[in-house]
Amino acid sequence: MNTPQVIIITGTSSGIGFVLAEYFGKKGHKVYGLSRKYTESSYFTSIPTDVTDNSAIQNAIAEVLKTETRIDVLINNAGMGMVGAVEDSAKEDILKLFNLNLVGAVQMMSAVLPKMRENKSGKIINISSIGSEMGLPFRGFYSASKSALDKVTEAMRYEVYPWNIDVCSLHLGDIKTNIAENRVRTKVSEPYKNVFEKVYSLMNAHVGEGTEPLEVAAYIEALLSKNKWKAHYYFGKFGQKIGVPLKWILPQGTYENLMKKYNKLD
């Protein structure tokens, strides 16, 4: 990435998105940050955009293309968490989650692809989760929303290949951000209360002990320097990343027992 790139990043008002936008802006790239509220920064251009609103997305991309002749990179970072038992989850909360984590990301990709196709180049990173590879207790719908995005990513790799456009999922472990403040937390019914509170406390402790966002930025910078991508990349602490290959090789019952221990369910 020696040549300055035009980079669009969603969810830049805080957390990983803000750190990424400032990181790449400081490196000399032209960065546009899309989030629901305007974000003050000397290093990137903030365009207030609700990525669940396709009209707002189209307007934001049109704004970028007033001054840019290309879009080199899209980082689909905007997303939200959701915690609670599957049984207790309301339809409205499930739809809200999927509308942002899946539909919003798809709408963003659809908006930038015409310009990438015109230039016969482009890279798209969909920020996923290590938790998309397994059904996490009390985060079933979050896991499902990110897993759905992974499958869409895999399909798109075939579809946009003829135009030298590359797409990948970047599965993150726990990153030290304010994600806990923005999660949808469903009402927890009586049968689940005790075990949920134990798992929820552990969940927040893992975030507090997570990897620094700047390390994610450096990893993505190295990823963008690669000529060809794999479909999936995993970034996080060893104890979380190891859960993915273990799921592939262990019998289901053995893996579930390990997950129960990790989440202090037994």
TrEMBL record:
InterPro entries: NAD(P)-bd_dom_sf (IPR036291), SDR_fam (IPR002347), SDR_oxidoreductase (IPR051911). GO terms for molecular function: oxidoreductase activity. SUPFAM superfamilies: NAD(P)-binding Rossmann-fold domains. Keywords: Oxidoreductase. Belongs to the short-chain dehydrogenases/reductases (SDR) family. PANTHER family: SHORT CHAIN DEHYDROGENASE (PTHR43976), SHORT-CHAIN DEHYDROGENASE_REDUCTASE FAMILY PROTEIN (PTHR43976:SF16). This is SDR family oxidoreductase.
